[in-house]
Amino acid sequence: MTIKPIASLAVIGAITLSIGACGSSNKSSSSSTSSSASTSKKSFTVTLSLGVQGCPFCIAVQRGAEDAAKKYGVQFKTVAPPKADVNLQIQQLNAVIASKPDGLLIQPDDGQAIVATMQQFKSKNVPAITVDTDANNTSLRLGTVTSDNLAGGKLAADQLNKVTGGTGQVAYIGYTPGASTTDQRQKGFESQLKKYPGLKYVGAQFTPDDTTEAATKMSAVLKRYPKLTAIFAGDEANAIGSGTALRQAGLAGKVKLVAFDGAPDEVQALKQGQASMLIVQNAYQIGYAGMEQLYKYLAHKTPPAPMTNPGYVVATKANVDDPKVQKFLYPAK
Amino acid sequence: MSVDTDTPPARPPFPARVLRNRRLPRLGRTENVWIGLILVLLVVAFTILSPPGTFLTWDNATSILLDASELLILASGMTFLLIAAGLDLSIGSVVVFCAVVSAKLLSSLAGTTSEANVGRYPHLALAVVVGVVTAMVAGTLWGMFNGFVVVRMKVPPFIATLGTMGVALGAAQVISHGINVPGVPIPMQEQFGLGKVFGAIPWPVVVAVVVVAIAWTILARTRFGMRTMAIGANQEAARRAGIRIGGHVMALYAAMGFLAGLVAVIDVSRFGTASIGGHTQDVLSAIAAVVIGGTSLFGGRGSISGTVIGVFIPAVLINGFVIVGVEPFWQNIAVGLILIGAVYADQLRRRRAIRA
Questions:
Q1: Tens digits of residue pLDDT in B175-207
Q2: Among A220, A241, A272, beta carbon nearest to B322
Q3: How far apart are the C-alpha atoms of A182 and A195, rounded to whole Å?
Q4: Side by side, which strands form the sheet with A199-207?
């Protein structure tokens, strides 16, 4: 029966080829539209290295960068590791450097660990701009575009103070320590809280991007501190999990939930009343500005600003439908 | 082989003898008494260590049950697989895939966006039926795919389901463009995910209890359960006894997939969204629960009652540590050490029982 294994191998080969064709046909269609825009001068190739796949903030950054790339006729490619692991990101970057892009936009998973790889890019004269998280060695990149997560955490503490009227117990729930963006948010939050003596900080809980675990831990926190007045959720999964925990305990709206990021399901939670406030970064602008600055450097040698901060918007149920706020929200596709 | 209809069905040929105590109700096996006592011990310890009125309350118990409901369902299916010396690493990804598909159908079928914004869902019943059925069918199909790769293509279950884990998650990301799928109709969250039967027991807990009861019945009281044990204990002997291994193992994987689809429905109802990044720890938690409960990783031995205890020990630990106020980093250390200790103590007793 030697025909069966050969047949199944042939089937698998056909499937792989067709998937490869499907995957690459999307890319080739997008790059063909951008290259047709610049027929006279050389079109630059830029690669965006995102920190992780499947994160709405990162996708918003990507959209902004893609739109800027289309405007300037830049051939644009995005790579992202399946997990927020700097080792996986470095693996991908090693493949990227072999394809010799003209420029690099990068959202490092770890500002220190990425230094060696960015040194390689610099030695090959590939200019780089960091987005969202900066590299620890600032000479390795032209500039950075970031919302400054430290400031974001402080903003969260200010908002918590406002929304609780200055007194009460507050808790933090966030992503497991190790990702510099969320670590900075926590740090900014905790340091700013010290300025509000009326707010008693009951501690931090961590979950690895899992809504069920977030709901479990937040349910337990609510049992331990029945007088809890507010929660700061440092990212999307923790926001959704905490929202559900609040509804299960019948405390939605009574305990104020301030969440970071403006992903579609967080906006839904805001509208339904589980979340009181979303602190949304201008992710689209981060990507757009990063790509625009990189293009201007490649084409005209204009040095970008050392740091650009597109800022935050605070979304509440009252203003979430305002077009000015809608611009900040992360895309649903 | 004649079957004696007066006495209960004979237990499959274990490598070791099992203590049978007819005076105790058959709901739990006696060898699980020890691990059950450990669970009780933990509950008592946390009650003493936590501020009064926080840990040992009906409210908190409901919370623990609710948060453990998804894992109970997954671990029930995993129990059968592990007893049959199989394995399914893909359950987390299958849950995510089914959740994405289900959420997309629910949000698009229930009503248009403008209608949803004001809370009107003209086609809610249709959307719910289609969404729920699709999730469970998709889960079953993934399970059957796993079964096909393991049984017909003879790929070891570890590799087969590792592959499916990647394929299912990738497919989910392709469909959802990598972001969580919002837009699940609010009534589904309010009446099912967060709703309670008789105002006291959350619906997901009811579903989990029904699944566990069915799983227990099948494993302890039916030929199917007995054959599962036989396949795990000695596959060759089972084959020669006339058990159709291929079909049986395929059914186990398909059932696991079905249960993953069911968990996806519960997940979408509880959180109102399909979470792409979640459920990555589910497979480890499910296998841990099954093993804590006394099922051997090599197959041939196990029980649903043990699995239930195995689900609740980590759940009680996580809940208890947060309530008592142990710092998060120390929580990880403490949970790990207590698990090792609990299962070691349990293993000592089981080995002594085998030697007796």
A1: 988 788 888 888 888 888 888 888 788 999 999
A2: A220
A3: 21
A4: A199-207, A168-175, A228-233, A256-260, A277-281, A312-315
Alpha helices by DSSP H, A46-179: 56-72, 86-98, 115-123, 149-164
Per-residue pLDDT reduced to its tens digit, B73-106: 999 999 999 999 999 999 999 999 999 999 999 8
CA B58-B64-B68 angle, 5° bins: 145
Whether A209 sits inside 8 A of B278 (CB atoms) is yes
How far is residue A157's CA from residue A189's CA, in Å, rounded to a whole number? 5
Q: Which residues of A touch B271 (CB under 8 A)?
A: 211, 215, 240-241, 244, 265
Number of H helices, E strands in chain B: 14, 2
Question: Which of A212, A251, A317 best probes binding to B when mutated, by most B CB atoms within 10 angstroms?
Answer: A212
> A144 Cβ partners below 8 Å, 6+ apart?
A129, A130, A131, A134, A138, A306, A307, A308
Closest CA to A140 of A125, A158, A152: A125
* Record: contact A55-B277, CB cut-off 8 A: yes
Handedness of CA B189, B195, B201, B203 (dihedral sign): negative
Q: What distance in Å separates residue B136's CA from the closest CA in chain A?
A: 20
* Number of other residues whose CB lies within 10 A of the CB of residue B119: 11
* Kind of pairing between the strands at A277-281 and A256-260: parallel
Nearest by CB to residue A54, choosing from B55, B63, B276, is: B276
State which H helix or E strand residue A231 sits in: strand A228-233
CB contact under 8 A, A223 and B55: yes
DSSP track, A112-133: TTTHHHHHHHHHTT--EEEESS
How far A244 CA sits from the closest chain B CA (Å)?
6
Phi and psi dihedrals of B257, rounded to 5?
-65, -40
- The answer to whether the CB of A128 falls within 8 A of the CB of A163 is no
Contact B101, B175 (CB under 8 A): yes
Dihedral sign (CA A241, A247, A248, A250): positive
Prediction ipTM score: 0.78
From CA B172, how far away is CA B179, in angstroms rounded?
10
Contact A237/B51, CB-based, under 8 Å? Answer: no
Helix (H, G, I), strand (E, B) or coil at A209: coil
Residues of B in contact with A321 (CB under 8 A): none
* Model confidence, pTM: 0.83
Which residues in A lie closer than 8 A to residue B328 (C-beta atoms)?
203-206
